[in-house]
Amino acid sequence: MMSSKARVIKLFKYPVKSFTPEAVQSLQIADDGRALGDRVLAFRFDNSGEAMRDTPHGGWWYKAHLVSLMHLPDIARLDLIFDNDTRYLTISKDDTVLVRDSIQTDEGRLNIETQLEGFLRELPEDLRPTDEQFPIHIEGDGIGGRFHDRPTGQLSLHSLASLNALAGALGTESLDEYRFRSNIVIDGVEPWEELELIGKRISIGDLDFEVTGPVIRCLAVHANPETGVRDQQILTTLTRKLGQEEPTFGILLQPVQKGGLLKLHDNLVVRS
Fold first, then answer.
1. The overall pTM is greater than 0.85
2. Which of 49, 52, 118, 241 is the most buried (most CB within 10 A)?
3. Distance, CA of 173 to CA of 169 (rounded, Å)
């Protein structure tokens, strides 16, 4: 049984798909499972066409059509900050601002697209988009989250103990949790214990969740969050060294009936 000491120690949202995380004190969770301000913007390849899919939860874009760490690890070298109040997006590289402009005007969006495209075009040929994928287009209104890996926008959770255990299996002292882009990090459990929650109902603070499944990882986790270099063989370590059938790190949560506010230090309790 999971320890009664299980609690939330970190919360994150990712305003722009595949880019810089934002550590927060709380997350407002919608009834459909999306966190307010999470994955509300993305950059789309030109040849993706009309790739947005209609779902009961609104439009949704699959990441294969978007600029993402899975295909372009070097984007980890960029820092993106989105201001929810002003709707301004800032892109920086090596502490130098490349662009800061509004997503609410055509001129601002074009300026942002042009600067990102300039960075991508300068990448080595084997690490940049193809000519057919240019130009790059910014998508989203900065409000609605439409760029999660799944149409329902489920929250992701991993434990600090699992992160440390994976670091040990890789033979490194520490592993940056930003690789995994989870919304929730918990402490007070044994390594991989969160995987035992799949199929169960849990409470975190005042909210109830169904644990709907594991998070199956892709090549994005190989990219160093600071340098963009693929410097860790995480997928094969999870399967070959740790014996997983599929490379799994973390679990997916869906609210039961309604959302609400998640906060740092909320306790996690297994209900059934």
1. yes
2. 52
3. 10
